[in-house]
Structures are given as structure tokens and as C-alpha cells.
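Deliverable D5.2: sample structural annotation.
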Amino acid sequence: MTRVPDLVVTGRIATLAGDRGFGWVDAIAVGAGRVLAAGGRTEVESLAGPRTRRLDLATDVVAIPGLVDAHLHLADAALAAGQVELEGTVSLEGVLDRIAAGAARAGANDDWLQGAGWDPAAWGRWPTALDLERVAPGRLVALWSHDRHALWVSTRALTEAGIDRSTLDPPGGSIRRDSAGRPTGVLQESAARAVLERIAASADLSTAIGAYSRQLLRLGLVGVHDPGRLIGGQALTAIEAVIELDDRGALPIRVHASVREPALEAAIERGWRTGAPIGGGPVDRARMGWLKLFADGALGSRTALLAEPYAGSTKERGLAVTSEAVLADVAGRAAAAGIVPEIHAIGDEALRVVLGVLEGLTGAISRTGPMLRVEHVQLARADDLPRFARSRIAASIQPIHLRTDRDKAEAAWGRERAGRDAFRVRSLLAAGAVVAFGTDAPVEP
């Protein structure tokens, strides 16, 4: 029996059913968060009941399908809203001025002072905890670099996280140190976890995610693929906040929430499968996403893994955050349990490794379900491009990197090679690859 719609919308309405571009209908019927019918006005209106609401669009209004962001760190974006914005500053002093202003606004509030967007490329040196002491003395401070692969923290933050001269670099991470071996205040990749876990413990994620999601919805964003917390954080905290919102019908958008490796076994034990509902809400807005793994770091932090040394160096090639063997083992366990892997790869050597790992999983992944994915694909050799379509692997790309990382790609590869092999969106499409686009938030709506 056809469900009676909650809402019938009439007017000029675009659909995704066109052979080239949009298709067009005069009416749609919506019920329980689903489009129940689309077509002619008379046909669709005949489905309405006495309690069906009606919306007749003005002649100069067009309804279009909502957008789904393919790469948005929902919890981090929600928590970042209203934090210190450092993007666009061109000098260390300019960054410190903004941090000082943020500390002044916080006043006696002893919560973490957070922000993002710093980029030391033009400074001639990395920032330090001592720099922060000049403008925010004694405060808990944690500031992401513009690429979210390095965390600049205060002296007090290092102390509370237990990071000192005797602390070893964790696997897949690096603590920047002075000549005497003392931590200087910059934590790269997984080294940031000790600080992030303390921040996560004090965060009200449900409230923040709910408020931020409503902002996204007002912009026409109806769903996100959330690759999880940037680094660290409690294993399932962000997903549990999404589930809690969904359970009480307060999640405004659809969320495909991914897990990181520390949460994989818990996800398997709960029977979660990529694409399947994980909440108890009336319209299943909370769904299982992917398993997010990392092959390398980022260009700005010079931790993206390259096949050849960085320009100007004879041996610096970046960092293999996770070995090929470990990637294959963990991704294989996930795929066998119905959780589809997505793997971060920015450098061309990291991409080669990741494609090999994912190609080995194609037999375990449904040909009609969610696709295997490579996240970012910023640097790619020509002979790797056909492998995406051949093995049904999606390229998940964030257009903002065309602006933020262009100069870094040239610095890493040299201008000629970067101009040929960086950000190869058209080449991927021409090779038949499925390309998904996202914002790589946190960004403020």
C-alpha cells in the first residue's frame, strides 16, 4: 500500500533523472523523510490525504536535490565553529595577534582555546609553545595547522598530556623537538592524540553536532560522509553522539559516520555494516560509513609519501603513517565484516600502495553497494589513473585543496611535474573513475 505523504510540493522541481543534467517534474510527494513520488501535478496530488501539507513554489523558485558532502569531519567542524580562525594570516605575528584576541574573549574561562589555519611556510620556522606563552600565558591551547596534520599546543597542554623529553614518538607520528630533545610544541600526525583525547573528554558533542548540522541544512546540505575525528579522540564518542541525536529524532541531516582503526572491533561486534542504519530514529538518518585508514600525511607538513624525494632534498620522501602490510590486514578484516575501507593518500607513492591494497579487496565488496575509496588523491602518476575504474574504487577529492595546496604541490614536486600530475580531476573522470567531492571541513558555514 502506498504511504500517504506528509508533504506535497508543486512547482518547478529538478530531479537527478535526466539523461544529461537535471530532469524536471511538476510535483513531488514526501513522507517519513523519503521522496515517495515524483511526476505530474495531478498524479502526485492524488496521493495526498487530509493531513498532507502542501507547498506551492513561486514561479521564480526552483527546488533542487539537496547536496551530500563526501568528506566532512562533522564533530571537529561542529566544535570548530566559533573558534580562533587563523586562515589567511601571512605572518607569525599576525597569527599571535588573533590568538591573543581569542584569549582575551575567553577571559577567565579555563576551557581549551582552540583554532586552526596556521601555515609556517612563509615564516621560516615552526611555531613553538613559547610563542603561545607570549600571548596566552598559562592557557590550554591547541591549534591545528591549515592541513590538520600538525597541532600547535601550549606548554600547559604538553604538561597535561604527559609529553616531555622522555616521550617517544608514537607510530605514525612525530613530536618536534629542539636541539636538546625537548618538545617545542608542534605534534605531527598521531603524536597529537594525547592532547586530543583530553579535549574530547570535555566536549559536548551532541549539542555541537546538532547545532552545526542545522546550519548545514539551511545551506542545502542534507547529508555528509563523515570520515571521523581528525586524529585521536575517544574511539566511538562522535558516532555515539550522532546516534543519540538520531534516536530522539534530533539529527537534522543524514550522516554516514566512519570509524577509525581503534573502533573497528567495536563496530564489528555491534554488527555495523557500511550503509546500514546504526541509530533508532524514525528515518534512519544515522548510518554506518567506512573504515578510515591512513597511508601518509599531508603536503604542508611534508609528510605526504612521495615516490621521489621532495624538491630541494636528496632523501626526504614523507612518512608512511601505516605500513602496506598493516593497511592490507586491517582493511581486509573490515571488508570481511561488511565495513568498506577508505584510505587517505595524498602523495603519489602512498596512492600506489593504497590502490594495491584496495584492489586486493574488490572480491569482498558488493558491486552494487558503497564503493572502496581513496581520500584526497592530490598527487597521481598517469599509470595509476585507470586503476580506479578498473577496480571500482572511488576517488574522493576536496576542491578546496586546489587553492590551499597548489603552492605546496609545486614545492613538493617542482612546478613542471606538479602542473602535470597534481589534482588530476579531469584525468580521473576521463579514465572512467567515480569522483566524489567534499569540503574537508571543519569550515565555518
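Annotation notes: The chain has 16 helices and 19 strands. Residues 140 and 157 are 5 Å apart (CA to CA).
The annotation will be released with the project's public dataset once the embargo ends.
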